[in-house]
Amino acid sequence: MTRPVLYYIRHGETDWNVASRLQGWHDPALNALGRRQAAVCAGILRKLIEQDGHLPTDYG
Q1: Which among 10, 18, 35, 51 would be 20 to 30 A from 43, CA to CA?
Q2: What is the pLDDT of residues 10-33, one digit of tens each?
Q3: Distance between CA 60 and CA 58 in Å, rounded?
Q4: How many angstroms separate the CA atoms of 15 and 28, rounded?
Q5: What is the Cα 48 distance to its own chain's centre?
């Protein structure tokens, strides 16, 4: 039986992170650094998915 792979990815930086504010239920936008971090994570995740023999579009 093949077990599914689970990847954990943390969100990128927000201005609230920089100010040490708790985000709770709020959803502040990523700042410029956070958007770059998210893009890097997306590239890493794409490579991991492809190494596992799948396409990102296989996951909806």
Answers
A1: 18
A2: 889 999 999 999 888 888 999 999
A3: 6
A4: 8
A5: 13
d(C-alpha 48, C-alpha 12), whole Å: 19
pTM score of the predicted model: 0.80
Pull the structure tokens for residue 40. 């890097």
Residue with tokens 């039986």: 1
Reported in sequence order, the residue ranges of the chain that DSSP labels E, i.e. its strands, are none
Distance CA(35)–CA(14), nearest Å, equals 9
Instruction: Judge whether 11 and 27 are in contact, CB under 8 Å.
Output: no
Q: Please give the distance of CA 34 from its chain centroid, rounded to a whole number.
A: 10
Between the CA of residue 23 and those of 3, 12, 14, 40, what are the distances in Å?
34, 13, 9, 23
**Domain ranges, ordered by start, for the chain:** 29-54
